[in-house]
Structures are given as structure tokens and as C-alpha cells.
Amino acid sequence: MQMGYLAVFLILLLPIPFAASTLVEKKFKECLMTQLDGNSESIEKIIFTTSSSLYTQVLLSLEQNPRWVNSSWRPLLILTPFHESEIQAAIRCSRELGLQIRVRSGGHDYEGLSFLCRVPFVMVDLINIRSIEVSLADETAWVQAGASLGELYYKISKASGVHGFPAGTCPSVGIGGHISGGGVGTMLRKHGLAADHVVDAYLIDADGKIHDRKSMGEDVFWAIRGGSAASFGVILAWKISLVRVPPIVTVFNVERTLEEGANNLIHRWQYTAPELHEDLFIRIVAQNSGDKSKTFKATFNSLFLGGIDKLIPLMNESFPELGLQAKDCTEMNWIQSVLFIAGFNRDDPLELLLNRITTSKSSFKAKSDFVKEPIPKTGLEGAWKVVVEEDTLAMLIMEPYGGRMNEISESEIPFPHRKGNLYNIQYLVKWEVNSMEESKRHLHWAKMIYRYMTPYVSKSPRAAYFNYKDLDLGKNKHHKTSYSKASVWGKKYFKGNFRRLAQIKTKFDPQNFFRNEQSIPLLNFYYSLLNFY
């Protein structure tokens, strides 16, 4: 090892304030210069050090949870590459200097793992790696990892009025991370997950080599579709298959309070929603009023892939208790429904889908569960009591499975939550005052509702959705987490697929370069020790 890099390595063994030094920055820039054939002008355009005037602006530009704003675990350097070669160089230089690397595609990681790390690290921000190429000839699209869901939906809609893609409901979410965790959306009962529709990918490994599906092999290709792609490399792009959507779809929001029978309706919904025709998706947002009034409402939020004339008879037959009428429904095209589900109006400009930066941001904490048996009415009543006790916005988002999800094997891709799951619950609490005291109080509520729900949700393991990242389930220790300890949280996300993921990880990234607090561990603990020492 050269003396210069030995000095950097010794610095990185010290606490982070010492590691964030000009020496590290200098050595990293020198390494990039070497990797990129001495193009210093292009390097200065893409690298932001802690002393850069734009560092904080770039760091916080896509940050979606102010809860992390005051963290001291910030990157030593931020890279905003325009070309894949710059990402390859960043990987090689990070390895050479003993730095960790984190990748941000949209900034929506629930625990901030794309831009926070307890050890010295470089953040690669993919904001400039976001091209989308739609091919109607074979009904596919290549989507770079830095593109948002909204940008993808927008681009598809400009190419076709009868194509769509079954991914998430939040337009600003980055496609890179979303698909790597599965990708749940309003068309999952008809078409499955976003990850179910990936047919190829470009992935950069720990040596900086770019792989497609053929060169990475079917095992790795299996792993990155729902099994934490960030554990295996840096996703550059996904090739996805588009789905057909009808020219007219129907949406509705029906609100009910407890006085209007919301609890009975939710209880009935558990039996009905997973068994409905696969064209019909009805989720529930059960929430308080966000203040101390202790009021509660449930919103039945729906997308139907067809017109009102077909929806009303279907609802009258399958879920008459809701009392849905034609006046409650609105017909529109698919891309307008994307706006509607995201909280916009049907006639709002489609360009709103391109907005990646939200002006109003709240701190939040989320947890998740899967439900396999209907919860009794008394159990639901108790949950709503916990919800209204919180004095800021708290909610349960309940999304039905069934349909196509029942037909896909739980080992087809790493996402295992298929047949036998009635619905998924996301517990979400938001607050405005970003202080340690306030955060602690609201985090307590999240743990309280999660504890209350224990008797009513999946068991052995108590399952969770990987994209609703939750470090309360457990986390890796830097370098030293064994497979058995990681299994505590890993089997909640991946069940029986977790061991296979660890086997693939051990073979593809044996030095465990791509790691974070909930990355797939090496199968053999001794690999970690050998690489640490």
C-alpha cells in the first residue's frame, strides 16, 4: 500500500470529524483524475466536498424526511455523475481509499440509508442519470435509476394512451430503489409488482464492471429484483415491460367516520377487497385529524380499470355495504388516475408528475405489517383508539393483495409476500417540529401501534415490506454482522428467500463492499473478519 493511501486509511480509523479532512478529499479527487484520464474540469462539476458552497443544497435537495437534517453522519463527498464511467470511478476510488459508498436515486429511503452512514462515505446522487426510452414496438422501456416514478409515468403517457406501469403511488420516488425492493402500487392485483416486470438491468459491481442480465447471471438478476439491489452493486438502469391499460379508468374516494359505520366497513373490507375482481383495487387510509380533537375517518381510495357502468354493478354485488353510487365516481384516463391517487386533481397539469422536490416536508416514521386473517371488530376498534390518541397526523394505510399476487410464487423473485396475505399495513406518523424531543414522542407512538397490532398480524416471522425500511427490526453492525443475527430482520422482509440472497451476495460481492444497516450479509461471518483485518 502506498504511504499516501496508508495515511488516508489511518485517518479513516479515527472518528468522523477527523476523517472529513482535506487529505481524503484531495486523494479522492486525485484518484478520480486518474480514473477519468485527467479531466479536472468535468470532475469539478460533479464533486461537492463539505467545504463546497453548494454542498448542503445538494445534500438536502432530494431529502424527503427532515428528521435526518441535523444528523452528523453526512457524506465526506457528494458525486452527481452524468456518465456511468464517473460512477465506476467513484466505486474504484472509494474502495482504494477505504470509504463506504451510498447511492441515492430519489431520496425516499425511510431510514435515510441512501445519504447517512456512521462511517466515512461518499454519496453518489443519481439525479443526472435519469433518461427514459420507451419502445412501443416491443412494449418495453429502459429507465435509468435516477428517474422518478412520475417521470416514467409521464413519459409512457406521452408515448401511448393505452400503456402504463404497475409501480408506486408517490411520483417523486426514485425508480432505482423502488424496484429493488419490489414496488407496490395500485395495479398490483392486476399485474403484480414493478419488479415482476423487469426483463433486464445494468448493474455496476464492486470492481466497477458493468453487467447486464446475461453477464451478471440469473442468480444476481433474481436477487436485485426485490431483494435489495444496493447490497449487490449500483443499479444504472432497468428494462421494464409495460402493461396495457384501458382508455378509461374510474376512481373514487369515499369517506366514513366511526359514527357512519367506518369500523364495520373496514371489517367487511378485509373479507372483500382481496377477493374482488383483479381490475378493482380499493385501499383504506384510516387516520386521525392531525390534532387533539380525537376524530377519526377512513377513506376508501380506489382505482378500477374500466368505466363506471361496469364498476357499480361489481360493487353492488361484492361490496354493497359501502353504498357506492355513480356520483361518487369519476372517469378519466390512466395518467390522470396517477395524479388523483397521488393527491392531485384530475385536471391538474401532468407536468406536476415531474416535480421531484416537495416544498412542504414533514418528519415521519413508518412501520409495516402483513395480515393473513381478518382482524376482529374489537381489534380494529382498539387500533383506532391508538390512532386518535396521537396529536399529530397518524394513519394506517391498508392495501389489499389477492388477484395476480396470488398467482406468482413467493420465490419467483425475492419479494415473498404473495398468496395467503390479505393486505399490507403501513403505519405512518408525521410531525412538523424537527427536534429530538418531538421525534422521540412520535417514534413512541409508532412503536405503540406496532406493539398493539402484534396479535392480529403475520407471525413466524412477523413480515414487513422492505421498501418501508424499519431499523427497529434490527440492523447490521459495520463489518461484523453474522448471517444468523441479520436473519432476525432479513427473514421479516424476505422469509425463506433470505438465505439464497446471502449465498448470492457472498459469491458476487465477497468483500461486502456494498453494505448498509440492512444490506444482505455475507453467508459466512469469517469473510467479514478477513476483509476487516
TrEMBL record:
| Gene3D superfamilies linked | 3.30.465.10, 3.40.462.20, Uridine Diphospho-n-acetylenolpyruvylglucosamine Reductase, domain 2
The domain of life is: Eukaryota
Which GO MF term does the entry hold, naming one? FAD binding
Record carries keyword Transferase: no
Q: Which InterPro entries match?
A: BBE, FAD-bd_PCMH, FAD-bd_PCMH-like_sf, FAD-bd_PCMH_sub1, FAD-bd_PCMH_sub2, Oxid_FAD_bind_N, Oxy_OxRdtase_FAD_BS
> What are the protein's UniProt keywords?
FAD, Flavoprotein, Glycoprotein, Oxidoreductase, Signal
Cofactor(s) this protein cannot do without: FAD
List residues of the FAD-binding PCMH-type domain.
Answer: 71-245
Signal sequence segment:
1-21
Q: What family does the Swiss-Prot or TrEMBL record give for this protein?
A: Belongs to the oxygen-dependent FAD-linked oxidoreductase family.
> Could you tell me which PANTHER family the record lists for this protein?
OS08G0158400 PROTEIN
Name by which UniProt lists this protein:
FAD-binding PCMH-type domain-containing protein
Q: Source species, please? A: Phaseolus vulgaris
Please name the taxonomic classification of the source: Eukaryota, Viridiplantae, Streptophyta, Embryophyta, Tracheophyta
